[in-house]
Design a protein that fits this description.
Elements (H helix, E strand, L loop, with lengths): L9 H9 L5 E11 L2 E10 L3 E6 L7 E6 L10 E8 L4 E5 L4 E3 L7 E9 L4 E5 L3 E3 L3 E11 L4 E12 L4 E2 L3 E11 L2 E11 L3 H4 L9 E8 L5 H8 L6 E5 L2 E8 L2 H20 L12
Helix pairs in contact: 3-4
Length: about 290
């Protein structure tokens, strides 16, 4: 007989997590170039964080890895650690099967640490789906990228504070974020900040200006020519894009995650062929 019980709500899941010890999860991945193929040669995990298998929707040169967090959401006190390294000449793309969900803190901060490394002339792409912060979430995000000589990087983050389409708003809580990127032992990007519910960082003109969705696309590699930069800016009047030496950055604020995602993926599809020399088909998992 089929199970017709309704799916648990975020509050139900958060309450269930309160009754258990916080999850401590880690994942280590290592990719190497073997002839014309990039292979996932090491995959170690502890706790509920893993990659099921390597995928090759673009052919053997580019290895796709889908990072899965089986609990489906991060509760107060949970910690996630992801460490991925791509060897010389390899190319790996990391994504997720769905939106990441960060539930209420209940007095305990949650955290995620992502460390990405790319060897000489290697490529690493970090393209998780949206990250949703539910009301009263307390989260610390740390993102570190280390690139050897000639290595390239593309990263996309879409942060959603509450779910306005479902009538859920972010009225309490805070998100602390720090990102640093090194290329050839030089620090090329450093950013840190805190966004608290009701603060100037969220509501002020020089913060999110009241928006509930914030997206950032970063590319490190060959600078974009002026016509391509203009083409990306033309995707949306609110899309800000700039090039500073080897670092390209695009940002977009909004209130609808689907709209923001569509625009930022269009920007990625323009950026990727220039920076990486390959087409930019949308990862299949994003459409399932």
């Amino acid at each position: 007989m089929p199970d017709c019980a309704p799916s648990p709500s975020p509050l139900d899941l958060s309450a269930a997590q309160d009754r258990h010890a916080p999850w401590q999860a880690s994942l280590r991945l290592r990719f190497v170039r073997d002839g014309l193929v990039t292979r996932l040669v090491e995959r170690r995990h502890h706790g509920p964080l893993r990659v099921q298998k390597a995928l090759y929707p673009e052919g053997g040169a580019i290895c796709h890895a889908i990072v899965v967090h089986p609990p489906g959401g991060v509760g107060g006190g949970d910690t996630l650690q992801i460490d991925a390294a791509v060897g010389e000449g390899g190319h790996a793309l990391l994504t997720t099967p769905g939106a990441g969900k960060w539930y209420r803190a209940n007095g305990r901060r949650s955290s995620q640490q992502v460390r990405l490394q790319a060897g000489a002339d290697a490529v690493i792409e970090w393209l998780p789906q949206e990250t949703i912060f539910f009301d009263d979430a307390a989260v610390r995000l740390e993102h570190t990228v280390e690139l050897a000589a000639g290595a390239r990087y593309i990263g996309l983050e879409i942060l959603c504070f509450g779910r306005r389409a479902a009538g859920e708003v972010f009225t309490r809580g805070a998100v602390h974020q720090r990102t640093q990127i090194r290329s050839g032992d030089k620090l090329v990007w450093w950013e840190q900040g805190a966004i608290g519910a009701g603060s100037a960082a969220m509501d002020g003109r020089f913060g999110l200006h009241g928006a509930s969705v914030c997206a950032t696309l970063i590319g490190v590699g060959a600078p974009l020519p002026a016509p391509l930069l203009a083409q990306i800016r033309a995707l949306d009047p609110g899309l800000a894009a700039s090039q500073v030496k080897s670092v390209f950055v695009a940002r977009l604020l909004g209130d609808d995650s689907e709209t923001v995602r569509r625009i930022m993926l269009a920007a990625w599809q323009l950026l990727r062929p220039h920076l990486l020399g390959c087409a930019a088909p949308i990862p299949r998992i994003w459409n399932t």
